[in-house]
Every structure is written in structure tokens, then in C-alpha cells.
Amino acid sequence: MQKKENPEHDEPYWKIVNTVKDPELDVGIVDLGLVYDITVENGCVTVTMTLTSLGCPMGPEIMAEVEDTLRQQKEISDVKIHLVWEPAWTPERMHPDIRELLL
After folding, report:
1. What is the pTM of this model?
2. 35-41 sheet: strands from edge to edge
3. d(Cα 59, Cα 97) in Å, to the nearest integer?
């Protein structure tokens, strides 16, 4: 089992998920701090993530794109998206370089 709790994204699945961009900001969702954890076990990837707000209108689109992007990997047989609201997302979760550009 591979597990990466700290998104210093050297693991390939963190990089893959970061290719999914927030459609409004055009920034990868890992760099935005929306992804809390990625685990891989027996070909199943579980992504624990949040959205910038409870009513985020792009949420379903972002989650579907995460799933589609991971399913394109030949070694992945299943993808689960675990949407959480705690801890709540805040701008402090962003990669410092991205936060500096956006704030």
C-alpha cells in the first residue's frame, strides 16, 4: 500500500491528480490544497479531498475529472473519491507559490 499524507507531490498519483485543474482558477487541485490524501491498494485508488466551499458549483465536474484521469492509468482498476468537509479548506492549504500569486 502506498500512502502520501503530505502533498510534497513526488508520488506519481499526486502528480497525476494535480493535472486536474480548478476550472475557475486554472490551478491544479493538489497545489490548491484540495487533496488531503491518496492511497493505493490492490489497484484501487482512494482520493480524500475537499472543495473550496460547500456550494462549489464545479465540485461534481472536478471530482469526475479526478476519477477519469486516474482511470486512464492501466494499473488502476477502481477509483473512489472521498469528499470531506473537515478539516475545512482555507487558503493556507495552497502551495505557497500559488497562494502568493492568487492572494
Report:
1. 0.86
2. 2-4, 35-41, 44-49, 78-83
3. 24
Q: Cα–Cα distance between 66 and 68 in angstroms, integer?
A: 6
CB 31 within 8 Å of CB 95 = yes
Grouping H, G, I as helix, E, B as strand and the rest as coil, residue 83 is strand
Using one digit for the tens of pLDDT, what is the confidence trace for 78-91? 999 999 999 999 99
User: Which one, of 6, 63, 3, lies nearest residue 29 by Cα?
Assistant: 63
C-alpha span between 23 and 37 (Å, rounded): 21
What is the identity of the amino acid at 46?
T
pLDDT in tens, 41-79: 999 999 999 999 988 899 999 999 999 999 999 999 999
User: Is-contact 25 94, C-beta < 8 A?
Assistant: no
Q: Which domains does the chain have, with CATH numbers?
A: 2-102 (3.30.300.130)
